[in-house]
Design a protein that fits this description.
This protein has nine helices and nine strands. It has 257 residues and is α/β, with parallel strands linked by helices. Helix 1 links the parallel strand 1 and strand 2. Helix 3 crosses helix 4 and helix 4 runs parallel beside helix 5.
């Protein structure tokens, strides 16, 4: 297996498997075919042969990391309101499946439930921390506590990502053994500066900018490079041919299922 990079002066080993089907990461689980960021979406990705899933965390009012992309629950559940204003019990009373009746009612999963599902299916986990602005450091504390308690240290198939620099800095302090990724829109022009400041060894960014800006400079640092969110097979192949290591996709059938 590929181990979490121990920072060397020059090149860092890759974090995710760089061979098929390793490059495909199920974005929010199999989110084109199942309710995003739910256990059934993660299980469908695993059953479809995906080696990795990408998930998002928010924090409840009583401090529990839960799987939710948006700051509010309005888009993906039958409830309304900000995650940070709801307790875990209040949040889990709503149905997290509003689009796929075949799966029946679903709860918003906790990070503990998600990690258990990942480990049971031997998946890799890209864990994105999406703090509502102003809770970045506290969000890192809550996630780090669960990861420290639940994730086996010898299992190197974990990448923690965030758009938030303060979140990543704190996560690097709390979990120095964990692989960290900066989530971005554009391709950073001086990736080494970000790597040094944040303790990261990977970059995840928008595939459109990857195609227009290029990312050779990123690859030269030895960082791991993944792009989101690619639902067109030709685009995915083009990016993989250009050297990206990971492609996040909503589609379990991206390359024919």
């Amino acid at each position: 297996g590929l181990s979490c990079p121990i920072r060397k002066k020059n090149k860092m080993p890759l974090i995710l498997p760089a061979r098929a089907p390793g490059p495909l990461i199920a974005h929010r689980g199999a989110s084109a075919s199942a309710p995003e960021n739910t256990i059934v979406a993660y299980q469908l990705a695993a059953d479809s042969g995906f080696p990795w899933i990408e998930v998002d965390t928010q924090i409840t009012r009583d401090g529990h990391p839960v799987m939710m992309h948006d700051f509010t629950i309005d888009r993906t559940t039958t409830g309304k309101g900000h995650v940070c204003n709801l307790t875990l019990a209040e949040l889990q009373a709503f149905d997290a499946n509003t689009r796929f009746p075949e799966f029946g009612p679903q709860k918003v999963p906790t990070l503990e439930e998600t990690i258990d599902c990942v480990l049971k299916n031997d998946l890799g986990l890209v864990l994105e921390i999406k703090p509502i602005w102003g809770s970045d450091i506290e969000h890192a504390w809550a996630v780090a506590k669960v990861v420290e308690a639940r994730w086996p240290r010898e299992n190197d198939k974990l990448v923690i990502s965030s758009f938030s620099s303060s979140c990543l800095i704190e996560m690097h302090r709390l979990l120095p053994w964990a692989c960290l990724a900066l989530a971005a829109e554009v391709v950073p022009s001086d990736p080494a500066a970000y790597m040094k400041m944040l303790g990261i060894s990977a970059f995840h960014f928008n595939y459109g900018f990857a195609l227009t800006q290029g990312f050779d400079g990123l690859l030269e640092t030895g960082a791991h490079v993944a792009v989101a969110t690619v639902n067109d097979p030709q685009t995915a192949r083009t990016l993989l041919d250009k050297g990206v290591h990971g492609v996040m996709t909503d589609r379990v059938d991206l390359f024919g299922g």
